[in-house]
Amino acid sequence: MSHSLKPTADIQAAVHADYLHLHANPELSMQEHQTAAYIESRLAALGIEHFRCGGTGVVGVLRNGPGPVIAFRADSDGLPIKEATGAEYASTAVGQLADGTEVPLMHGCGHDTHVASALGAAAVLAQGTEGWSGTVVLVFQPGEETGAGAAAMLADGLWDKAPVPEVVLGQHVFPFAAGTIHLTPESAMALADSLEITLHGTQAHGSQPQDSIDPIVLGAHIITRLQTITSRELDPRDAAVVTCGSFHAGLKENIIPDRAVFTLNIRTLTEAVREKVLAAVTRIVTAEAAASAAPQPEITTLYRFPRLFNDPEQTGNVATALASEFGEDRVKLVAPLMGSEDFGALGDAIGVPNVFWMFGGADPSDPAPAGNHSPFFLPEYRGALDTGVRAALAGIGHYVGC
Amino acid sequence: MSHSLKPTADIQAAVHADYLHLHANPELSMQEHQTAAYIESRLAALGIEHFRCGGTGVVGVLRNGPGPVIAFRADSDGLPIKEATGAEYASTAVGQLADGTEVPLMHGCGHDTHVASALGAAAVLAQGTEGWSGTVVLVFQPGEETGAGAAAMLADGLWDKAPVPEVVLGQHVFPFAAGTIHLTPESAMALADSLEITLHGTQAHGSQPQDSIDPIVLGAHIITRLQTITSRELDPRDAAVVTCGSFHAGLKENIIPDRAVFTLNIRTLTEAVREKVLAAVTRIVTAEAAASAAPQPEITTLYRFPRLFNDPEQTGNVATALASEFGEDRVKLVAPLMGSEDFGALGDAIGVPNVFWMFGGADPSDPAPAGNHSPFFLPEYRGALDTGVRAALAGIGHYVGC
Amino acid sequence: MSHSLKPTADIQAAVHADYLHLHANPELSMQEHQTAAYIESRLAALGIEHFRCGGTGVVGVLRNGPGPVIAFRADSDGLPIKEATGAEYASTAVGQLADGTEVPLMHGCGHDTHVASALGAAAVLAQGTEGWSGTVVLVFQPGEETGAGAAAMLADGLWDKAPVPEVVLGQHVFPFAAGTIHLTPESAMALADSLEITLHGTQAHGSQPQDSIDPIVLGAHIITRLQTITSRELDPRDAAVVTCGSFHAGLKENIIPDRAVFTLNIRTLTEAVREKVLAAVTRIVTAEAAASAAPQPEITTLYRFPRLFNDPEQTGNVATALASEFGEDRVKLVAPLMGSEDFGALGDAIGVPNVFWMFGGADPSDPAPAGNHSPFFLPEYRGALDTGVRAALAGIGHYVGC
Amino acid sequence: MSHSLKPTADIQAAVHADYLHLHANPELSMQEHQTAAYIESRLAALGIEHFRCGGTGVVGVLRNGPGPVIAFRADSDGLPIKEATGAEYASTAVGQLADGTEVPLMHGCGHDTHVASALGAAAVLAQGTEGWSGTVVLVFQPGEETGAGAAAMLADGLWDKAPVPEVVLGQHVFPFAAGTIHLTPESAMALADSLEITLHGTQAHGSQPQDSIDPIVLGAHIITRLQTITSRELDPRDAAVVTCGSFHAGLKENIIPDRAVFTLNIRTLTEAVREKVLAAVTRIVTAEAAASAAPQPEITTLYRFPRLFNDPEQTGNVATALASEFGEDRVKLVAPLMGSEDFGALGDAIGVPNVFWMFGGADPSDPAPAGNHSPFFLPEYRGALDTGVRAALAGIGHYVGC
């Protein structure tokens, strides 16, 4: 990789400024209007061709002679969390949920570092065209947190509008030491499915259970039964989770209610296991309702996250490039995470390899940095952005560097 | 019993008027301010000595020479139900819950017939003093629906302020044929205990159950376990119910919450069984929390209803008096009800016998009259009130008639 | 009732001798060959017409002029229990189970007192024909313990061969004070159904649950679910029990077995509740198998006991007759027992009233006599037999006495 | 590795003969008397120093000049399975269980190939001393199937009597294609713990659950609760199994028994997870007994298998040596197995690396060879033994080859 693909001090300063601006102005998923406008203005300033895609998504395209076409994705949405980091530049922004409720907003998952790092890498590439050859598609994706953003960009014709890449790269900040990288070949993060299940019973006075079909007792049996999916139906080596995150039924202690509503969050690492688990959930919910002589429950999908499958060969290649940038001991192969990401959909949609890595954003001397989605989550931004920009360039440079 | 203890046409008309007024003006439990004022005005009009007790309770005392002192109770509260009977005189009243919420109100349990019948009986007694001898204490009790009213009157010194009776009588309307009476010697209605139980867990992301103590799974195991109290711990011949009327936990499908709250309603027919069930609930909840390595749950009592124990001897006597009034075939001994009443506390507090009966308020030709607490509950008021007044007088007359 | 229907001292001595003989020679259900022969010889000695019915059943018929025909039943089988009473006349008998196993035998349920009392009553009736008029059918029934005997006699044409009675009487000894009687109008003992349920799964190594359908986990969910039948599906006032008395599955800790077998014993007091419970068992077992994706389990009936319904009017009449014999305070109406008896089938088969009572057989000064089916069960035989004979005569005499 | 470390045709013939002899003469775990004698005779014929250790274990020591000391283990026990392979040389042997029961015996797990291959490798080493230098300790271990053999040899002072090696090697035949090798770095097979748990209740008649503490209902709640250990308490990525392989309680459907006994088989891949699971089992069993007001259950350990941890560095080295022998595409890194082995104890006891691999024993053209422990398990012995001998020599040769 050429030495020319390094950020200058000016670019570093711009990355810091971008980060501080973004950090102070988080927006909700699929509502990243200001963020998109900001990205557009920055790409324009860098003279990079760009267009909107998927509403609040922005695509920048750097065409620089013959060579590979590759894509690099940065996600841009914030979270409905009240920032409690105490940082001078902490967010005080508020947003509005679909139902009109005002909520405090925070870049609680570090997507601000993703966008700033991508803009920094774009600046380096735009200014250092002699150091590389090919085409780089910068995908600023909205709505990662809700699993809606990648799908929206694809639905809006992302790969019709942008050059089709031979690989899609992406990265995510985590609270391990800045200057270090984690990768997972193959399944890197979990497929996720969220379901809402409504049980129907028959209301009766609490003193007359014989006139009821009790949906709470039915629900209790379903919850206990669902535990057997991971304990008895899957290969013990197949990581999977079936979590019931909420269960709501009844208003009064002496009235057996006529319904119960609960939600499930299902995590798996392969499509085969996912389908096995979903089928088992349906089978158990249906049969338990029959055991209660209750009507058929309703099972509705709230959302799903696709697989994040890192192509083993390309991941090996990128790992080597990252090791060359950060040092072998700073690049670590790790076990899959049970968290989810919609990044994988971008490459899967066109059958090209994905490579996704995690970069450290924490002060290496901090013994217990707060985790993503915590109100206290706060990357040490200079180190985090330095890592993010260099990792982006190392990954991109592997393909288009000369 | 003397013939003099019969309502005149004028009294019947007044009873109808009282009923229609009360029916249109229901009030919430322990908020029966207008109702109490109305009762006071009616007692005043009849020249009956009276005083407030327990806030919105009213006690009337008819002293009529030597003889037994007996008490007769009528409860006066309405319910937060929107009346859907379509009656001309249907309630359109609204009330305010403790939290300020406005709710529609309805005399959905027929307490309006109780008060009107008691006033009618009072009128007969007041006007027909030559037909009886003794003292009759009329207890217009508030707050039956919440189990708070009898306790409030007792706490306010009911039996210090009123003459101490040798028996306490009471009655309740039900949707069986007007002109008929049901009684149950000994345990007549259920003791009721309502509990709220808060389970404490440890919150974690849905993908990381290992960091959680899952209060929903804990709750499901508790609910299934609680079924064994009636199925395995009690004599099958001991009627008892443990109902979980509500269960609430969690906000999002992918976050394991840190708590779950559920409520129980427990019905038993004897104090011994009640104590066995309550001890079993505590034992199971405590042990299941230990099985989950969860902190000790909190168990709080929402309210309780005492036993309603009909003294067998006095109940036999009253049954005979009622049979003489309505005909043998119209007075029926029935099995205990699993519903609850706080009437029993009135006599139990001073160790005197209670006698409580149910009187029919439905048009005998109605094949399926709506039940108590239904928005469609509507006694055929002429028949109901005729039955209620006559039954009250028959019961009272058994003791003070000449 | 005439004074002539009293045992003479000679008859009392014969009753004692019969008892001691029977007690020392118990036989298994439906194998009462010696017992039947003994009964025949005793009836022959009394000159009473008799015949075999249902294998080891014996029917004696006393025809004594015009008047009612009534039946009186005494059951005759012993139990496979090793007597541990230490009585001089204790049984040392052994019997052979269907599979050839030798077992010690004992009259552990007191049927020896039933037969001896019935023979004593027969002697009184046979010798005192001037004191009564009508026909008495003495039904010495085998196989009560297994629920097979009444059915066998009915199948063998009992009421074709014997005069059809207008009422069937019966009695059973219990360890309360001799000289006292307990009766229950209407449902007196439980209907019982015993089922064996075989769950089918798929065997796999314990380390590979994904290859199994685990019948033990399935069984555990069924057992917990069955608790909800009594806790949620029945009126709390309907006494019922669903007991799982055995559960067997698996040979090795590290092999998930391919089947589990468990047995249920179901007790109810009415046919309607019985059918509700049996339907619920089938529904739950079927649905839980479906929840496990397991094949349909097999549900087989091991045996059933019919209802024992005491006709209220005739029971009242007999109670009066018994009270006249033993004193009002010695005859007590009691709650139904959850134990079972096949006596009720005898009258139900021909639609005539049954009346069954329990007579005390314990020394009144014994504070804790051993219960029926205990190896220590031992009536104080003089008192027990005196009570049994007098009660039989009082009951019979009510119908045929003059 | 020197070409001299190859079996000659004579040695191959001897390996075949050894195999056929061993196959026809399987013995039960820790009863391998004939097998041990046979091994001794073969080592003696080869002039190899040897001694008994751990009862039916045999240790051979080849000392051949300076150089590394390494150990190679072959396990020797058969299984109580009736061979159904139809092979001419199939076993018809019988053995005697501890309780005297006669059982058919079979080398159903292929340990005959292990011993024959080890003897073949020993022959090559003994005859080709010029081709290697160092000391090779051949450990013919009994009792692998019961987890007792490695422990017995260690308890008998294995590493006091034999030269202490710097690495311990071992191999196992599996029904994949002969000529191929599978290895797993780090955790290769599961730690296993087998427990027997006795629940104590209180016996009562099935109609009187109130007098019982029902151990079957308690057991059902424990079994359902145990499912939550893997579903809720472990990291979803930590493979673990908790299997209940047997559950036995009760003799009669109408008697609630006084106890239930069940067994658990627990599989984990690390000591940390193992301890977490065992602690959870104890916690749940204890708390559920408390929920039933039952006495403390008894938890006894039936046996345990230790970890099989392949030293990553040495496993890499051995994999390279095996790839050089069989070809890179014939040596495959595979996921851990949830089955168990006591091999790991041999190196762990003295803190030296273990390396264990699996060799293919099936005819490559067989689409569905029967699995280990099946009555139809039958390696294609020529290919299996060729693979076993060559793999043993490749592994050993890596350390002592020149």
Explain what this protein looks like in three dimensions.
With 402 residues, chain A is α+β, with helices and mostly antiparallel strands. The first copy, chain A, has 2 domains: 7-183 and 336-398, Zn peptidases (Aminopeptidase, 3-Layer(aba) Sandwich), CATH 3.40.630; 189-302, 2-Layer Sandwich (Alpha-Beta Plaits). Chain A has 10 helices and 18 strands. The first copy, chain A, has helices at 9-24, 33-45, 111-127, 149-155, 158-161, 215-233, 271-291, 312-326, 344-348, 381-400; strands spanning 49-53, 57-64, 69-75, 94-96, 102-104, 134-141, 168-177, 181-183, 186-189, 191-200, 204-205, 240-249, 255-256, 259-268, 298-305, 308-310, 331-333, 354-362. In chain A, the strands form 5 sheets. In chain A, strands 1-2-6-3-7-18-8-17 form an 8-stranded mixed β-sheet, with helices on both faces. In chain A, strands 12-14-10-15 form a 4-stranded antiparallel β-sheet, covered by helices on one side. A two-stranded antiparallel ribbon of chain A has the order 4-5. Chain A is elongated, with a radius of gyration of 23 Å. Chain A starts with 8 loop residues before the first helix and ends with a helix. The mean pLDDT of chain A is 96. Chains in contact: A-B, A-C, A-D, B-C, B-D, C-D. At the C-D interface, strand 10, helix 6, strand 12, strand 13 and strand 14 of C face strand 10, helix 6, strand 12, strand 13 and strand 14 of D. Strand 12 of chain C pairs antiparallel with strand 12 (240-249) of chain D.
CATH architecture name of the largest domain in chain A: 3-Layer(aba) Sandwich
Largest interface: A-B, 48 and 48 residues
Largest sheet of chain A: 8 strands, mixed
Summarize model confidence as the mean pLDDT of chain A: 96
- What is the share of helical residues of chain A? 25-40%
> What is the CATH topology descriptor of the largest domain in chain A?
Aminopeptidase
Assembly type: homotetramer
Shape of chain A: elongated
Please give the order of strands in the largest beta sheet of chain A.
1-2-6-3-7-18-8-17
